[in-house]
Write a structure and sequence with these properties.
The chain is an alpha+beta fold and 142 residues long. The protein folds into two domains: 100 residues, Double Stranded RNA Binding Domain (2-Layer Sandwich), CATH 3.30.160; 37 residues, no CATH class. The protein has five helices and four strands; from the N terminus they run E-E-E-H-H-E-H-H-H. It has a four-stranded antiparallel β-sheet with strand order 3-2-1-4, with helices on both faces. A hairpin with a 5-residue loop joins strand 2 and strand 3. Helix 1 packs across helix 3. The longest helix has 22 residues. The two termini are 26 Å apart.
């Protein structure tokens, strides 16, 4: 499912700052507008994915036309000089993005005694699952 939130893009010096006013002024940046957009997508996906994993609710997005980038800039820093700004929707499929970037599996090679391997194979043990469970237990992770 596609999630879309408005973001303010501020062109400051030689880079872009990005602020999501609806999400507690969540921020990121990029050297170019394209990089700032990529970082905004990553930032939005990470924030929404974390909220989902923690069971936290997120506010509904504000209409794009209701966002005033000057007001957002003044809220963050009342003394900040006026700079070039625009408001743009940032969209991401959080579940798909998380699978590709946050939940990617990595292959590990390990050694165990031959007798232990044979016993586990006889019992149809899923080695990956057992290793994940053991690591989570050792690390005190859910």
């Amino acid at each position: 499912m596609l999630s879309m939130y408005p973001a303010c893009f501020f062109h400051e010096n030689d880079s872009y700052s990005v602020i999501f006013p609806d999400l507690n002024y969540l921020a990121t940046q990029g050297d170019t507008f394209e990089e700032a957009m990529e970082m905004a997508i990553d930032c939005l996906a990470g924030y929404l994915h974390t909220c989902k994993m923690d069971g936290d609710s997120v506010p509904k997005p504000t209409q794009l036309s209701a966002i005033d980038p000057e007001a957002v800039a003044k809220e963050i820093d009342p003394e900040a000089p006026v700079c070039e700004a625009l408001v743009n929707m940032v969209a991401v499929d959080v579940d798909l993005y998380a699978k590709e970037h946050f939940e990617k599996s990595v292959k590990k090679t390990l050694s165990i005694p031959a007798w232990l391997n044979a016993a586990a194979l006889e019992q149809n043990i899923n080695f990956s699952q057992v290793l994940q469970e053991a690591l989570k237990a050792r690390l005190n992770i859910g």
